[in-house]
Amino acid sequence: MVTLSNFKFLIVALATLGSVAAASDSSEDLKTIEIAAADGSAKATFIPFGATLTSFWVKDKNGELRDVLLGFDDTSLYKSDNKGHPYFGPIVGRYANRIRNGTFTIPQSKNASGPGKKYYVPHTEGNNTLHGGKVGYDRRDYSYRVLHNSPSSVTFSMIDPAGTEGFPGQVNTTVIYALHAKATFAMTIIAKASEDTPIMLSGHHYWNLEAYKESEDLNNHHVQIQSSNYVVTNPQLIPNGQLASVEGNPMDFRTAKSLGRSIPGTALAAYCGADCVGFDNCWVFDDVSSSERTKPVFSAWSTNSGIKFDLYTNQRALQIYSCNGIYNATNPIPRKKSHGGPDKNYVKHSCLVVEAEDIIDGINNPEFGVNQIYGPDRPDRWHGIYKFSTVDVMKINSSDF
């Protein structure tokens, strides 16, 4: 059984066993790499550009494989903005999510007010920075290794030079993906910095657990989150340093309920920002200190396909985005063939992004009590295990409808 505690030993093994190495250059960065679980329970494809997951196939309740991950069939679109910049499936960093005003100090201070040296990252979303600047980790070339005797795993690596996007220090990042028996998807990211610098990494994966076969909404997607509090943000989704209770509002997923049917209730409070209906929020796990969790912190399943996954992670928080802005009428994103495309498009509220990460913009909110500055003696280690399974019947409380 793969657990968070024994996964770190797997990381060492993957990094040291003999492998086939290929440096990603202009001819390699869109090369498709496939891995599969030895028992045939799941398979996945990747490209080195952004260390991007491009498909994820898992069995539904009838034993048929479905690709439950959104993306592009035309892999060149991962490198351009021809269909926008949705961050389909890559690693995001050097600092995931948003940085208020694109500024921070080392050591951390409230809204970069000091003391400490002040740094500037390019603005990419109004006056703020999203996912690491103009050329974040999702738009970098990674080298990769596939083990000779283990086509069930792939390792990506990338060097982020000091000063890139305004961040101090060089960061060497390793990303390891592995598929194990019983559709267990294990993922780790290790980032080592040459000097003190903020680091917050995550995978940015869009899921539809029906593969668009039964519906184009999330009404039959049910979610449970082990969280009693979420991060309060302004209309630009920038935290103010406060947490709020989920009690009595649409943010409460402590008891499983329909994600899609919860979306209309967000309209009044605009949880996902100005003039937005849906979710684009950060939940803080009730158990924020444990890296050896024995229970999932997040679960999602479709009552149509029967596909379910449980997430185990060492991260403190989880960002959920309900694809509120994925559809652009003048430049829609075509679905993959595995999702009924390309004549059909991805539409809003038809998918969910699940980002396990630290508390967002913690570098500008010391009151969160998290240290997001890493250096030579303190590498950042991100772990996540996604355990896929199937369910035939789930008892959903009638209040969810």
From TrEMBL:
CDD domains: galactose_mutarotase_like
Stored Gene3D superfamilies: 2.70.98.10
Residue spans crossing the bilayer: none
GO biological process: galactose catabolic process via UDP-galactose, Leloir pathway; glucose metabolic process
UniProt keywords, alphabetically: Carbohydrate metabolism, Isomerase, Signal
Name of a matching Pfam family: Aldose_epim
A GO MF term: carbohydrate binding
Cleavable signal peptide: 1-22
Keyword Signal set for record: yes
Protein family (similarity comment): Belongs to the aldose epimerase family.
Protein name: Galactose mutarotase-like protein
Organism: Crepidotus variabilis
